[in-house]
Design goal:
Elements lengths: L5 E5 L4 H12 L3 E6 L2 H15 L3 E5 L7 H11 L6 E4 L14 H29 L2 E6 L14 H19 L4 E7 L3 E2 L2 H4 L3 H5 L7 E2 H14 L3 E3 L2 H9 L6 H6 L3
Parallel strand pairs: 1-2, 1-4, 2-3, 4-5, 5-6, 6-9, 7-8
Helix pairs in contact: 1-2, 1-8, 3-4, 4-5
The protein binds NADP nicotinamide-adenine-dinucleotide phosphate.
The site of NADP nicotinamide-adenine-dinucleotide phosphate has 29 residues, from α1 and α6.
């Protein structure tokens, strides 16, 4: 019988993270679910144990705190496990760099969106390299591919996640470790309600929205295929090409969020 892989998913209490958990459980992985809301993680864990007989561990942690990745490594080691599949997915819309004047809030955003992603890779990728097998999906965004006059935080943070994934990919892909940045466009999750963006969501046409199951299936396929960047959805793959055109760029730069 093949060895059961262990997948650690951050931001598993909702949206894309919960969907990663459902799809990885369906393919037979053991799961470690991470987020702040314990009840949500426990409810998901219980449903996956009942449906697939999955071994699921719940670890609560706030990834905007610098000590959390090391704490997670310690807890995973205490469980007697190692991580074969790392899904760095936790994320928020976050503050506007210029308009939101609380620097502590900005710093917590950078810690969650940038530092914790690097920190999780720092802790978990060397073991994958040593064992000669690993899969990493860093959830980025189309906002990291297309520069727009938005809040000057979310897009740049996701651009870092893409750059990090691309460089890690060239560094470790010949060691059996695939690192992939998943770039979704607008996706139905709790993200926009959590970020106070309900009105923006209502203002967008239905055809720009994708469901989480489609985005996650494409993300996992891209990761398995060894693609360092996986853009999900045909609409966004076309937009990605168009956005690089000298005719379309000036139009994007004129739009405001
Ligand atoms: N939805 C979209 O349109 C879209 C598009 C492109 C990219 N993305 C990216 O997709 C990823 C997942 O977002 P989503 O759309 O699934 O949003 P979501 O439904 O709001 O889920 C976000 C997840 O992140 C967790 N999280 C937030 N802050 C955290 C913290 N400080 N520490 C630990 N966990 C934290 C939340 O759990 P707790 O609150 O329980 O901690 C939740 O599980 C994010 O990286 C986001 O930037 C989303």
């Amino acid at each position: 019988m093949p060895e059961t892989r262990t997948a650690l998913i951050t931001g598993a209490s909702a949206g894309l993270g919960a969907e990663f958990a459902r799809q990885l459980a369906a393919r037979g992985d053991r799961l470690i679910l991470v987020a702040r809301r314990k009840e949500k993680l426990e409810a998901l864990a219980e449903s996956l144990r009942a449906k697939h007989g999955t071994e699921v561990h719940v670890l609560t942690g706030d990834l905007s705190l610098p000590e959390t990745p090391a704490m997670l490594l310690e807890q995973v080691t205490e469980l007697g496990l190692h991580v074969d599949v790392l899904i760095n997915n936790a994320g928020i819309a976050g503050p506007h760099l210029l308009e939101d004047r609380d620097w502590a809030q900005q710093q917590a955003f950078f810690e969650l969106m940038i530092v914790s992603v690097a920190h999780m890779c720092h802790h978990f990728v060397p073991g994958m390299v040593e064992r000669g097998y690993g899969r990493v999906c860093n959830v980025a965004s189309m906002a990291g591919r297309i520069t727009r006059p938005a809040g000057a935080n979310y897009g740049p943070a996701k651009a870092y996640v893409i750059a990090l994934s691309k460089e890690l990919h060239v560094l470790v892909s010949d060691k059996g470790v695939h690192v992939s940045a998943l770039c979704p466009g607008f996706t139905h999750t709790e993200f926009h309600a959590a970020g106070g963006l309900d009105e923006m969501k209502r203002g967008l046409p239905s055809w720009v929205w994708y469901d989480a199951d489609v985005v996650v299936a494409e993300g996992l396929a891209g990761m398995e295929a060894g693609r360092s960047v996986q853009i999900s959805g045909r609409l966004y793959r076309i937009a990605d090409v168009l956005a690089r055109s000298p005719f379309v760029r000036p139009l994007i730069n004129r739009t405001r969020r």
